[in-house]
Amino acid sequence: MTFDFIPYPLWRRKVSPLxxxxxxxxxxxxxxxxxxxxxxxxxxxxxxADYLTRWRMLPPGMLHIGDxxxxxxADAAPDVNPPPIPLRLPAQWERMEAVxxxxxxxxxxxxxTHAAMIQAIAPVARVDVLIPHPAWYAPITLWMDAYYPxxxxxxxxxxxxxxxxxxxxxxPIVGHDPHGKQAAVDARFSPLSAYPQxxxxxxxxxxxxxxxxPVHHLPLYTEGGNxxxxxxGTLIMSDELIDRxxxxxxxxxxxxxxxxxxxxxxxxxxxPRLWREExxxxxxxxKLADARTILVGAATPFKNADRLRAARALFERETNAAxxxxxxxxxxxxxxxxxxxxxxxxxxxxxxxxxxxxxxVPVFGLSSDDAALRIYQDAMxxxxxxxxxxxxxxxxxxxxxxxxxxxxxxx
Length: 411
Description:
The chain is an alpha/beta fold. Helices cover 25% and strands 21% of the residues.
């Protein structure tokens, strides 16, 4: 059992009025008093400087933040223009134009994770960095210049009101229309009834309007963390997709029929989900390295052994949409741990991002990190394997893939 920082807005959780005072006190302790910075009214230069000083986020020699902060353009108004459908979802190994990240301004332990990702992505793709208020632009750039220097010409800051940082799940699902042009899908997003996430749910439409690309709405609940595509007719998802909609009275055939209306694919492969993993997402179970190679978490003892064993057996007998058999490679799967005795923490090396001949692999400060990196290098020899520190990020339930959303280039 651990008692680590939790990168989640616990102070926003809806609780019984009788438990509210006790819960707010506990949330304040676990998140180390970050909730006041969640309110734009609190972002005065003095308060921001105090926050950064308390977390030791100011570069050496800097004692305060000045009053003049660079203004960042806000999102454009939504402009919905449904494109031709269905869309082809490119594989991650295809050419990517950009990667979206939501900078964890309220979670200083995650700053180095996001900085390392931005530093790794910027040389090969544009990085769209979402921030909740223009005031955050200066401290982020100053801090990165000191610790994670980058070429800023390939990085764009966008002011966007958000509820959380896990942009993989609520970000735009961008694919190619029948003419090879970019178009976005906006799926329904409301995974946690106890947390308000209306701002996250609106991001795909707002981002598409900013980029000037059409967007249409998928009337299903699904998140980007539950979709792997090989770009050639195969989608891989977990059985969470079917189970969630069964509660709404939809059969598997009905769900698949809806998916076919919006996405161009011939074959849907459903894997088991991890035990007591809140999202049920496939990116914590497996990872497509290429159209014929899939990385799967090893059958770690305890609750997930049977599920991971079943996932491996599934791919050993399955083929992709082209009828090709998979080469199945196991990655280490560290044992589950409990944070604060409540939150199961699954450290999954399959939660990586492939972008323009690079693969960003999460590492957790464990002895299994080196083995995972070697397996990636052997499985993806034409890619540069870059480790990303995710010791703090995983305490929120995810890692690199969960914290990023790639945007494929137009064909």
